[in-house]
Amino acid sequence: MEKLVENYMDFISRNKTERLCVRSAIEIAKKNGYKDIEKVKTLKAGDKVYIDKMGKSLILFDIGTGDISKGMNILGAHIDSPRLDAKQSPFYEDKLYKTGIVYLNTHYYGGIKKYQWVALQLALYGVVVKTDGTTVDIAIGDEPDDPVFCISDILPHIAQEQMKKPASEFIEAEKLDAVLACYPNVKDYHDPENNKYTAGDGKNRIMKILEDKYGIKEEDFASAELELVPAGKARWLGLDKTLVLGYGQDDRVCAYTSLIAMVEGKAGSRTNCCILADKEEIGSAGATGMNSHLLDNAVAEVVARLNVKANPELVIRRALANSLMLSSDVNSAFDPLNPGLFDIHNSSFLSRGVVFNKYTGSRGKSGASDANPEFIAKVRGQLYANDVYFQNAEMAKVDVGGGGTIAHYAAEYGMSVLDCGVSVLSMHAPWEITSAFDIEQAYKCYKAFICLE
Ligand code: MN
Ligand code: MN
Fold first, then answer.
1. How many CA atoms lie within 13 A of 378 on its CB side?
2. In b/e form, how buried is each residue of 150-159, taking b as 16+ CB within 10 angstroms?
3. N or C: lower Cβ tally within 10 Å for the chain?
4. How does pLDDT run across 397-414, given as a tens digit for each residue?
5. Within 10 Å of residue 13's Cβ, how many Cβ atoms?
6. How far is the CA of 393 from the centre of ligand 1 (A)?
7. Do you find a cis peptide bond into 137, omega within 30 degrees of 0?
8. What SS3 state is found at 188?
9. Percentage with pLDDT > 90 across the chain
10. Measured in angstroms, how far is the CA atom of residue 405 from the centroid of ligand 1?
11. 7, 84, 3: which is closest to 246 by C-alpha?
12. What's the gap in Å between 322 CA and the centre of ligand 2?
């Protein structure tokens, strides 16, 4: 168990963006016999393939011995996490006050409490794509010799006005700009004769550094995808190796355990499928999110390579409609410091096993897929048979808030889908808390699930 959790900690420490997750997941899949579907002309039972969608989401298939139109066993999780994205014109220098500070201008991605992202070591990851089609990878802040980035905050001594504001206004989104550079030395920027500071050239210096190191120019950032994330590794939290503290555990804790269960598993009669989706944190929109034809297009590619006699369109529809899916995403762990937010009888607790959410959503289950009891019973039975610990929960008290997952997009195909995942304390914070036991139970749950007949 410790090995699985330490491998997981290493995975989330090295893969802090969806692109890096896809890249590492492909490596893991290849080591386990998976091939790029683009390079495969026909498929038969026992074949394993993956579909890489724009390097941002990934779908794996392990072809079963039976008729695919009887449905698949699908594990689905998302690999994007809340963060700060660089804007399209990301660099600016404070010229008004001539501080010489150069900032990276950001736009937050997903649901964050903005005040949590100031005064924190940040790393910058992503790609810059040049017009000649070449892609430059950026990764700064996690190697021991790397610099880091930081968004400054007001010192408490003079924060009286700030401290009166509600937390939602405490740090404005437009002030979530990270420090990139400053005047290195007053002598270069000060004209002692006239006692004047010259306008800075900090931005130019930054551009020069970027051009020398990466061969990229300022205009190239218009076609870039740069993400500011917490710098540093996932660590054991506390003294007893019970808890894990790490960035992006929503939802890489489900994604990693699903992936490992998938590649270690072997399809029986039903084809197994594992979806690592992008864009969940912003509503699953976009071509790499689940609110697209990501899944049915992928299944169509598989069906096109199988020796299928029936009408392929019907086979695809039946394969999807008859599928069973665990939509795996994290759930809020009961928080003893804020017990009033939770219905204690319907909460998930750290270290009590994988969590089932029959429904998610908010305001009267709005946006939930609300799983069928017949399907839940089937999953429950399988988990009992495989000694997997699980708990049933809602996110919080009714009408306290809520959230959605990818489940209802999968349900649109008519399949049976159940929300399932790992409890997280401080979900969506830069550093989130999970339990090692729950990570292991999630992995065991996914392994058992893909063996359903
Ligand atoms: Mn999530
Ligand atoms: Mn989330």
1. 17
2. bbebbeeeee
3. C
4. 998 888 889 999 999 999
5. 16
6. 15
7. no
8. helix
9. 88
10. 6
11. 7
12. 28
Dihedral (Cα; 336, 392, 294, 64), 10-degree rounding = 140
Return the biggest CA–CA distance within the chain: 88
Q: Which residues contact 203 (CB under 8 A, 6 or more apart)?
A: 91, 92, 93, 102
Q: Which ligand is nearest to the CA of 110?
A: 2
Residues listed for the chain: 453
CATH 2.30.250.10 domain extents, the chain:
83-230
Low-confidence ranges of the chain (pLDDT < 50): none
Q: Could you tell me where in the chain the CATH 3.40.630.10 domains are found?
A: 2-81+247-449
95 vs 200: CA distance, rounded Å? 7
d(CA 194, CA 189): 12
User: What is the C-alpha to C-alpha distance for residues 333 and 336, in angstroms, rounded to an integer?
Assistant: 9
How remote is the CA of residue 255 from the centroid of ligand 1, in Å? Answer: 10
pLDDT tens for each residue of 220-277: 999 999 999 999 999 999 999 999 999 999 999 999 999 999 999 999 999 999 999 9
The domain 2-81+247-449: what is its CATH number?
3.40.630.10
Q: At what angle do helices 2-14 and 436-449 cross, to 10 degrees?
A: 90
The dihedral built from the CA positions of residue 151, 156, 162 and 168, taken in this order, carries a sign that is positive
Contact 391, 383 (CB under 8 A): no
Question: 234 phi and psi, to 5 degrees?
Answer: -65, 140
Compute the mean pLDDT over every residue in the chain, rounded to the nearest whole number. Answer: 95
Ligand 2 centre distance from Cα of residue 212 (Å):
37
List residues, by chain if needed, whose CB lies under 5 Å from ion ligand 1: 250-251, 329
At 89-121, the pLDDT tens digits run: 999 999 888 888 999 999 999 999 999 999 999
Supply the pTM of this predicted model: 0.97
Q: Which CATH architecture has domain 83-230?
A: Roll (2.30)
